[in-house]
Input
Amino acid sequence: MTSNDSSPSDDDLHVLAAECYLGLLDAEGVRSVAVRRLRDGDFDAAVREWERRLMPLADALAPVAPPDRVWYDIEKVIVAGAPRAPKMRIWDNLNFWRYFGVSTCGVGLAVAVLAGFYIDRPAPLPFAAATLASAANGSFVATAQHRASGTLLILSPSLVRLPAGKSAELWLIVRGRKPEALGVLASGHAVAIDLTPNQLGAPMDAVALAVSIEPMGGSPTGEVTGPIIASAKFSLR
Amino acid sequence: MNDLADNGDRAHAERASLIACLTQISHGDKSALEDLYRRTSSKLFAVCLRILSDRGEAEDVLQDVYMTVWSKAARFDAVQGLSPITWLSVIARNRSLDRLRSKKRRFAAMDEAAKIADSAPLADALLQASDTGAKLFRCLEDLEDRAAAAIRHAYFGGLTYETLARQNDVPLGTMKSLIRRALMRLKVCLES
Output
């Protein structure tokens, strides 16, 4: 039985949606579907449809009771009123959680490519900026804006030239803390990162960004492993 | 039939109470989060464990999932037709896959997980799954074995075409067309 009632392009859309949801695509494919999901409602709906179709795979797993300590740890954090556990990664808080499925289509793509999504909307003026430039590898500008939830960093579309098989990874540098990975930069894509005050943990003019060259897909250890090609502190405007 | 109707009612009631929990959580009600945790954590822990095959990491991610729910419950949108447990499972799966990828240990983990998965009796799955679930398992059974296995592995392992091709020792193009064909058949079967 073939799908006579649907056009080839329709079939393509549903297959691509499944590939997106399952995470079958390579890095380039992932980037393009993540963007398409945000712009193409039909495609986004098709991905959600696969989410529903395949969910029985997870539902069929026999339940496993977690140890009590998991709840105690959650309770501790909530009762203490601490906004988030510090070990959480910063892009967990990207403000596009409504599109939480993007992370499936973009697992491994640490920073979403949401240029259009953020930049098409009227935004408050930036209060701080940092320019990162590297003669050999490219440059970009980062700006910080106040948001109700904290601080929104926007990185202008960057031109990142890299050796084959390498990725450029962005790091948040705050004095007294280990550099925190913010994600992998893709050439030509703007990036938006939402930080709660707790995640930032310092005034903006005490915060810097750095870019290092890492193995494809980002640092395997969660720490900087390659050369830092650019870094800059934010200065207030 | 009565059983089925009862099951349906129960599922409906469970769904309604989970939605109520999420609503209360979005207003900052801590006891609602505890209630949600009691009702759903075993299910979500199973998802994390299945993907990560490491208890410590699964516990970390599970905690992460509920912290996310605590701060993002307001984003749950029942209107979109996702059931709350599906929403939660999607978060658990995404977070676990993120962790798996970030750890770069997915090949070892997947080999283990694949063994566990392949030895899991399908009958159990059929018994536990809902009606729609049973249909998915029937449709998967109709697919070529290799394609069905690849779809399961991708679902729980976030494996790319490239990895699947390597693991199955077939050219990339062959793996792609095998899975694409299977996905179309699966869709048609599920909609029939």
Remarks:
- Residues 104-129 of chain B have pLDDT under 50 and may be disordered.
- The radius of gyration of chain B is 18 Å.
- Chain B touches chain A through 72 residues (CB under 8 Å).
- Residues 2-26 of chain B form the longest helix (25 residues).
